[in-house]
Write a structure and sequence with these properties.
Cobalt-precorrin-4 Transmethylase, domain 1, globular, two-stranded antiparallel sheet
Length: 289
């Protein structure tokens, strides 16, 4: 049989391609690039749909994880609700800033996948309204008990320390998204949560005037931990299902430190590289829409 160099060359190309494909299938996945954007859900003068959309556009994510559940977001899109935009324009329906900004970005870049990472909460709007009412009443009663000198010296010091740091944090909620997401704020958020779980919990349990809040407060603290664990698990599932993607996590600011600490675990190093908002805005990926 005559020697056919061209035929042998074709066979070599096929074999090489198969070997490369086999290697790629078994190779370790590239870590996802993850940016966490902490926000104030109802916004302020600086945190608007426009300002958040501008940040999302600069980051140009492949995936946006939002603090909603699967009843709101499915198949990479926010579920369409007839008349929603009109209701928002008229101020009848105050959807969160990130909800509206992510929806607008999806209109610009259809390939982006919007995905939920929160747990399902029955009657979510009623739950939020009730929680806000209880938090306000609880804080007012704490302040009254403190001002009336009913706290012992140790508890008074703990409450005063908590109030100072919490008020400073609340002041930041009136600033821009970039300032809200200063890396130094993580320690502040962790301190607030720690004090609420321990010092404020203890004070609430130990003083008669605060007893009406004891069951509610205990349940809230426990629910926070359960919710954080479930949130982290859903984020892990998204990381595990993707490779070499730019993933933007938009969450209420108080959840940011829990998520950030979770993503910094050594066992997640192969799944994600955590990038600060400042770094992501300085070196944004090239837009493809």
């Amino acid at each position: 049989m005559a020697y056919k160099p061209y035929s042998n060359w074709k066979k070599w190309v096929v074999i090489t391609s198969l070997l490369i494909a086999a290697y790629s299938a078994n190779a370790e996945p590239s870590p996802n690039r993850v940016i966490i954007l902490g926000t104030k859900h109802n916004g302020n003068k600086l945190v608007t749909v426009k300002s958040m959309l501008q940040i999302i556009e600069r980051i140009n994510p492949d995936i946006i994880l939002l603090e909603f559940d699967s009843s709101v977001i499915k198949n990479c899109s926010i579920n369409k609700v007839w008349g929603a935009k009109t209701a928002e324009f008229l101020g009848v329906w105050n959807n969160p800033i990130e909800y509206r900004a992510a929806r607008k970005f999806k209109e610009l870049k259809d390939s982006v996948c919007l995905a939920p990472f929160d747990i399902y909460i029955p009657n979510r709007k009623n739950y939020i309204s009730y929680t806000q009412l209880m938090e306000k009443s609880h804080q007012e009663t704490l302040l009254r008990v403190y001002n009336e000198g009913l706290l012992n010296a140790s508890d008074a010091n703990d409450y005063n320390s908590y109030t100072n740091i919490n008020n400073a944090f609340l002041g930041l909620l009136d600033s821009s998204l970039v300032r809200m997401n200063n890396p130094n704020l993580t320690d502040t958020i962790q301190t607030i949560i720690y004090k609420e779980k321990h010092a404020i919990r203890r004070i609430t349990m130990n003083y008669p005037a605060l007893q009406p809040f004891s069951n509610w407060y205990n349940a809230q603290v426990d629910f926070w931990d359960e919710r954080s664990e479930a949130i982290n698990k859903k984020i892990w599932n998204e990381l595990n299902a993707n490779s070499n993607k730019t993933i933007l996590i938009i969450t209420g600011l108080l959840h940011k430190s829990d998520i950030e600490n979770f993503l910094k675990r050594k066992e997640l190093a192969s799944l994600c590289t955590l990038i600060s908002l400042k770094e992501a805005l300085v070196n944004p990926p090239i837009a493809d829409f």
